[in-house]
Structures are given as structure tokens and as C-alpha cells.
Specification:
about 220 residues, alpha/beta, about 15% strand, globular, binds zinc ion
């Protein structure tokens, strides 16, 4: 399993980054990105702390830890600058908190994240076909979410993304240890969304590309 969207207690997750990574390794994960919620108030605080922790864990553990952020509920007009700041501060995976149906995320947020070329647009809700095509063009991966509160439009997203050949990834959006999933559960989940073996393999490959890990295991 490669999971590029998870939260630690540096935002609203319940585990320390180290325990989150340890529990993921125990689940059989190859790689995990820690992508805590950030806005203008905490982005400069969160990134260096996650980056430092990942660097140390990568020295000692086989699982690859990747420092990231999830830019969350900020004005769409400010997204471009914040993405740039995140990358400059050391975030290797920048996730955009997309227009989920379960929160009042401002309309135009999906588009702004795609234009800003985040790595992953998370839980994009009822994303329009135009934005899906733009995501493909800009190389932004669209997220299938295993998180229940965001997951209702998954089937629609898969259908539209396959139609427009836009790249998909599966993430758990883990906040607590019980949210982590193993390969078997991932495959069952994706099968339930109508994906076949080829479709699932492509999604795993996409995650691998973003995580920069080879099939044989983590690289340095
Ligand atoms: Zn989110
Ligand atoms: Zn999240």
C-alpha cells in the first residue's frame, strides 16, 4: 500500500507522525505521506517538523515516509502562493482539500488547486468534466478516497476519470489507526467501484510515481 494523504496530531489526526508511520509499516505499507491540514496560520510550523521526522524515520525504517501538506479551506485566490510556499518549505506531496460534498468548501477551489498544479486533488466531490480534463492536462492526480464522509461521489469520479483518461490515486485520508488499510482491502475497495485488475494496477502505479518508489521497495 502506498498512501499519500494522512493526518497526524500536527493537525486533526490522533497519532504522532512517528506512530502513524510505524502503524502503517506494520500494515505492510511501502510508503506514506503525512499531509496535515494547513492554512496561513500553521504551514510554516507544520512542514519543517514533518520533514525532520520523515528524514530521521527514513534513516532507520524500510517504509518510505514523505513530508507533505493538505492545503485546506483557504481562499481559492490564495492557493497558488500557498502551494509555492509549501514546496519551498519542503513538502514533497502537496494535497489540495477539494470540494467534498460533506463540507462547505468554496466553489472554485478544485479549479484553483488544479491550476496551481498540486500533486493530488483530494475528495473533489462533484467535480465537473472540464476540471477533470484540466487535471489530466496539468498532471494533477485525482483522489479516490477511502474516507467515508467524502466517499459518496467515488463511483462517479472513477467513471469520469476513466472516460477522460485522467490519473487517479487511492488514499485513505487517515486520521486514526483504524483508517489504515492493507493491500487486500484496497483491492476490494477499488473492485467495489467497478475497477478491474488493470485499473487497480494503474492506480497503484500512479501512487508509486508520486511517491517515487520502485516496485522492489523504497529508494533513497
Ligand atoms: Zn481533506
Ligand atoms: Zn485529509
Amino acid at each position: 500500500m502506498i498512501d499519500l494523504h494522512t493526518h497526524s496530531l500536527l493537525s486533526d489526526g490522533v497519532l504522532l507522525p512517528s506512530e502513524l508511520v510505524r502503524r502503517a509499516e506494520e500494515k505492510g505499507y511501502e510508503a506514506i505521506a503525512i499531509t496535515d491540514h494547513v492554512d496561513f496560520s500553521n504551514i510554516d510550523f507544520v512542514i519543517p517538523r514533518i520533514a525532520k521526522t520523515c528524514k530521521i524515520l527514513n534513516k532507520y525504517w524500510k517504509i518510505k515516509s514523505i513530508p507533505g501538506v493538505e492545503i485546506t479551506h483557504v481562499p481559492p485566490e490564495s492557493i497558488k502562493g500557498l502551494v509555492k510556499f509549501a514546496r519551498g518549505a519542503g513538502a514533497k506531496i502537496v494535497v489540495g482539500h477539494g470540494e467534498t460534498i460533506s463540507e462547505p468548501v468554496l466553489s472554485g477551489t478544485n479549479r484553483a488547486f488544479i491550476e496551481a498544479r498540486v500533486d493530488i486533488l483530494a475528495h473533489p466531490g462533484m467535480i465537473c468534466a472540464e476540471d477533470i480534463r484540466l487535471a489530466k492536462k496539468r498532471g494533477v492526480f485525482l483522489e479516490i478516497t477511502a474516507r467515508k464522509s467524502h466517499s459518496k461521489p467515488n463511483k462517479r469520479l472513477v467513471k469520469l476519470a476513466l472516460k477522460h483518461k485522467a490519473p487517479l490515486v487511492l488514499n485513505t485520508d487517515t486520521h486514526a489507526p483504524c483508517d489504515l488499510i492493507d493491500d487486500e482491502r484496497r483491492n476490494r475497495f477499488l473492485t467495489g467501484l467497478g475497477l478491474d485488475g488493470n485499473g487497480i494496477r494503474q492506480i497503484v502505479r500512479n501512487s508509486r510515481v508520486l511517491a517515487k518508489v520502485r516496485k522492489s521497495g523504497p529508494t533513497s
